[in-house]
Write a structure and sequence with these properties.
431 residues, alpha+beta, Rossmann fold, Dna Ligase, domain 1, D-amino Acid Aminotransferase, Chain A, domain 1, 4 domains, 9-stranded mixed beta sheet, 5-stranded antiparallel beta sheet, 15 helices, 23 strands, binds adenosine monophosphate, binds glycine
């Protein structure tokens, strides 16, 4: 079978790599891919925003199955376009993708279907939003969260511990700081606890969680610095105990399924539930309608089943029959980023040590890489590489990942040195 993966990041690299191991896969294509993906798979020069062109290409090249990585084409309706051409595809419809595309849509869905989440209010103009923020702090709230309503590449959220920062961010949203995403804001109570990313397959009849994972959102060690798309991840996440998983299944996943069915939202794909494990139970921070990155790099590194078979069963509404098989070995993914990320950064620096890193046994997934005119691999994005390794326990998985990381260099490149530390803390606490 011929499989097409849509996207160009670390998530798409690990999807190509895992799909290629499936027994019925003859060839994997990636559109548009990146320099690292192109070393292993055939990349097709079509942008993720070119939906009709992508579908034309899939028809012309007799693609049997397509897997969509990023949220933007899902929110633009790529699944609807492909299905209208009779092409099999993994992902939610445009209508269902609003669970990620609109934070107010997601919040209403959670409230309607009794999915535990932060208390929230939405505003279309800045003045009442700021009044609300001031009242919340006056009532003794220790923090407040302001969210621009729409896709803002992970940048449209501020967790503020004072009213001034929150109000400045509200102004930024309404002044167009996040394009159309800021014409409406959602203001939420601030939740405290440990975060986890629950990735669940859903096919309209069944919803099933994958192996647990956690990412590290802040740019610098000890969770300091600005929020990013994710600086590293590990799987399993000890915070997801059997009791927490059972609670997520009962209060979140089962209710999501009821909601999708009741609202007739066509969703045959992957739902990512960003959740906070608080002392009052698990609460949902956000939904995404695609695999989390870098979480997926750690999670799929532990997957020992047949991913194409699983995804085809999801597309066919037969998820209940799919075999989800996981290695007991933990996996850790360390993201290496361009100097300055998540702010401005320079591109085009030659990356050295990739072969040495691979020789350690770790897998280096590429995200923001390109070839220069000499054919050398250079950095071309904020998050550049996801260095992923397994180990007999989480400590050795961490060591194995950093052994590979330490081989790789480019001007300005950096990573966190503490990926997985929450897991080690749980281990030390005997939990
Ligand atoms: P979101 O895109 O909605 O997940 O928000 C991005 C990040 O902001 C989350 O991963 C959390 O770290 C943080 N966050 C979002 N909502 C809240 C909340 N209600 N309380 C505390 N932190 C939050
Ligand atoms: N790592 C978080 C995300 O993919 O949104």
């Amino acid at each position: 079978m011929k499989v097409l993966v849509v996207g160009s990041g670390g998530r798409e690299h690990v999807l190509c790599w895992t799909l290629a191991k499936s027994k019925n896969v003859d060839k994997v294509f990636c559109a548009p891919g990146n320099a690292g993906i192109a070393q292993e798979f055939e990349c097709v020069n079509i942008k993720v925003s070119e939906l009709e062109k992508m579908a034309d290409w899939a028809v012309a090249n007799k693609i049997d199955f397509t897997v969509v990585g990023p949220e933007a084409p899902l929110c633009d309706g790529i699944v609807d376009v492909f299905k209208s051409r009779g092409l099999a595809i993994f992902g939610p419809s445009k209508a269902a993708a609003q669970l990620e595309g609109s934070k107010t849509f997601a919040k209403k869905f959670m409230e309607k279907y009794n999915i535990p989440t932060a208390r929230a209010a939405e505003f279309d103009t800045p003045a009442p939003a700021k009044d609300y923020v001031n009242k919340e702090f006056a009532n003794g709230e220790k923090g407040i969260v302001v969210k621009a309503d729409g896709l803002a590449a992970g940048k449209g959220v501020l967790v503020a511990d004072n009213a001034k920062d929150a109000c400045d961010f509200i102004d930024l949203c309404f002044e167009g700081g996040f394009g159309g995403a800021g014409n409406r804001v959602l203001i939420e109570e601030c939740l405290f606890g440990e975060e986890t990313s629950v990735l669940a397959l859903v096919d309209g009849n069944t919803i099933r969680a994958l192996a647990s994972s956690q990412d590290h959102k802040r740019a610098y060690d000890q969770d300091k610095g600005p929020n990013t798309g994710g600086m590293g991840a590990y799987s399993p996440a000890p915070v997801v105990t059997e009791a927490v998983l059972a609670e997520v299944e009962k209060n979140v996943l089962d209710n999501v399924l009821v909601g999708l069915q009741a609202e007739k939202l066509d969703f045959h794909g992957l739902l990512f539930v960003g959740a906070m494990v608080t002392d009052k139970g698990v609460k949902v921070l956000e939904f995404n309608v695609r695999f989390g990155d870098p979480e997926v790099q750690a999670v799929l590194s532990r997957f020992e089943g047949d991913l194409l078979d699983v995804m085809q069963k999801v597309a066919a509404g037969k998820l209940a029959e799919a075999d989800l098989i996981w290695s007991a070995e933990p996996a850790v993914c360390v993201v290496m980023a361009s100097g300055g990320y998540p702010g401005d950064y320079e591109k085009g620096f030659v990356i050295t040590g990739l072969a040495e890193a691979a020789a350690t046994g770790a897998k280096v997934f590429h995200a923001g890489t390109a070839l220069n005119d000499k054919g050398e691999i250079v950095n071309s994005g904020g998050r550049v590489l996801g260095v992923t390794a397994r180990g007999k326990d989480v400590r050795s998985a961490i060591e194995n990942a950093y052994k590979a990381v330490d081989c790789i260099k480019w001007n300005g490149g950096f990573c966190r040195r503490d990926i997985g530390y929450h897991a080690l803390e749980h281990e030390a606490a005997g939990k």
